[in-house]
Target: Aminotransferase
Amino acid sequence: MKLAERVSHMSGGGSDGWEIYYRARALRAQGEAVVNLTIGEHDVRTDPAILDAMHASARAGNTGYTIGAGKPELRRAIAERVAARTGVPTGPENVVVTPGGQAALFAAHMVTLDAGARGLYCDPYYATYPATIRATGAIDVAVPTRPEVGFQPKPAAIDARAEGARTLLINTPNNPTGAVYSRATLDGIAEVVRDRDLWLISDEVYDTQIWAGDHITPRALPGMAERTLVVGSLSKSHAMTGSRIGWLVAPEEVVTAVSDLATNTTYGIPGFIMDAGLNALSLGAGFEADIGQPFRRRRQIALDTFARSNKFRLVPSGGGMFVMLDVRATGLSGIGFAERLIEAERIAVMPGESFGTAAAGHIRIAMTVADEAFAEALARLLAFAEAQTVAA
Model:
């Protein structure tokens, strides 16, 4: 008996990049104290008011099938939020609710890519991007960015790889780098997308966590609303990672196609989860700012810590839950540095190489532990890095 080749094609073989994370979990299971700065999980849980709404809805009987694009009232609330935040006219017909942002990413590529087509994405990238593209039977093509320019994608680099492509996936604010794409960057991307007749898939799950600059959705640029699919989620904005509630904002034809796909895959999202999401959205921008505030504070802690060093610098981070540190002065790869760090200091960080080749020699630091513990961990990390430089 032989399994279908699509899963092996999807995984691509080799490492999944999460070895340090697995090592940290194993050490904790052995009873060791590890500062885990690997994963983008809030250090607070979902607000009790949201959980109360979820519980009340489930107790009221909203536990049946919910086939389709999502509850009309939730789609309307998402559309109103998107229109208010971006200035782009958006109706519920432009919204399909999905089981988290990852499901939206998967669906977006499934309905826009054919087997054998090329799907573009920017390197560094969130770990699931290549496999999500390959899951459609398409060919994933990375577009390298450079740390010297803050990992802002260059239009010429995108255009050079666009022959035969159908889609381009971007992510701003970016995971892992924290880069917030500038208006000039987005204008250049939009020009290539229009000229090459591409679908643009824009992952904007960190759009409420902006620490420097402004978030601009490419959907707001001239001629882009009809070719842009925006991934959104309550995971980061409302600390609801485990609830798995996200959405795709797109032209109506895309929403219809994604709804058809959902009928044959997820069968929709539980009604009580959608009601919790509706409650979460009703809490307003102030609530979202409170969820993001710890990461603003910790970003400043990181900036202050590494300002004391003349050897190590942070990549300018404008948003999100992460900062990225250039450790090339140690002479180590990101992988080598992270491996030595967890063994010597019991501090776990993600190697830049886990997110592609462009971030080689960097590490990603998740700002997901309490301020005092975070400051202490960074001080120890910096001292460790300085010692490695002497040894190298």
